[in-house]
Write a structure and sequence with these properties.
It is built from 8 helices and 8 strands; from the N terminus they run αβαβαβαβββαββααα. By secondary structure, the chain is an alpha+beta fold. The protein has a single domain, classed as 2-Layer Sandwich (Peptide Methionine Sulfoxide Reductase, Chain A). Strand 4 and strand 5 form a beta hairpin. The chain is globular, with a radius of gyration of 19 Å. The chain starts with a helix and ends with a helix.
Length: about 190
């Protein structure tokens, strides 16, 4: 009986101290590049490439890129808030985009490649607003990254998931041709 009580107390204590994983949604141009950046972060549990922000339900890559669906290529990041904070993830997002490009990101241009921060609650919105003010003060110019209320996320096709790992050479050639890393170094030093 004592063993059962000890086990029950342990499980009760563990459940009280368990932190529920959270999700955050960012769009930073090519979702392959964003996925690579966030997969390296301690506390990030998973990343899923997909689409968000538009009006079409269950869009395909073709819909998002070639039609006016309102969606952008986005990333769903599941993270453990006891290991990485929302604020840190937001800072990582900034360091992986060009916040001054309203036409898209790097060599990918068009509505579906715009940078967007999706917020799910007032606290996230406050962190975003604070980061905008800090960055505009730092750079002395307007940040054009969009801020949208999160509504729905649609997972992209399987061939887009972990593309940077499954097609490493092709991915590196794409990333180099887009001068993504060079541009990021110029902006963020």
């Amino acid at each position: 009986m004592k063993k059962v009580l000890v086990i029950l107390m342990f499980l009760f204590h563990f459940n009280l101290n368990a932190v529920e994983n959270k999700k955050v949604y960012f769009a930073g141009g090519c979702f392959w590049c964003m996925e690579e950046s966030f997969d390296q972060i301690k506390g990030v549990i998973s990343t899923i490439a997909g689409y968000s922000g538009g009006h079409l339900r269950n869009p395909t890559y073709h819909d998002v890129i070639y039609k006016d669906t309102g969606h952008v290529e986005a990333l769903e990041i599941t993270y453990d808030p006891s290991k990485v904070s929302y604020e840190k993830l937001l800072n990582i997002f900034w360091k992986n985009i060009d916040p001054f490009d309203s036409e898209g990101q790097f060599c990918d241009k068009g509505k579906s490649y715009r940078s967007v921060i999706f917020f799910q609650n007032q606290l996230e919105k406050e962190f975003i607003d604070k980061s905008f003010k800090n960055l505009e003060k730092k750079f002395g110019k307007k940040i054009v990254t969009l801020v949208w209320k999160f509504e729905e996320f649609y997972q992209a096709e399987d061939y887009h998931q972990d593309y940077y790992e499954k097609n490493f050479i092709r991915y590196l050639m794409y990333k180099k041709a887009c001068k993504r890393e060079d541009t990021l170094r110029e902006i963020w030093n």
